[in-house]
């Protein structure tokens, strides 16, 4: 016996994506950044319904056993610059989180 400790069990397998909102000041910029940073499919229509549709599918991210994490960088600056768009975006994120929870696969949105 060498005294070596067994390797810890693997951690949760979650797909993590980052949305960078630096310089985004309106709805159009937010939706463009979602398309770019989150790798949305070509059919993404750059409107709130299309955002909800894309967040409700996520098949292009794969289906990890433990769910998804979306890290939203620059949220406070965006919320200050475009409060109505930020409120709607947060609502869409919350609805997507609830839908994924119903399926037993968590989607966690972290506002940073």
TrEMBL record:
One of the Pfam families matching this protein, by short name: Barstar
Recorded hits in InterPro entries, A to Z, give: Barstar, Barstar-like_sf
In this chain the Barstar (barnase inhibitor) domain maps to 15-111
Q: Which Gene3D superfamilies match?
A: Barstar-like (3.30.370.10)
Highest taxon listed in the record's lineage: Bacteria
Family membership: Belongs to the barstar family.
Can you say what this protein is called? Answer: Barstar (barnase inhibitor) domain-containing protein
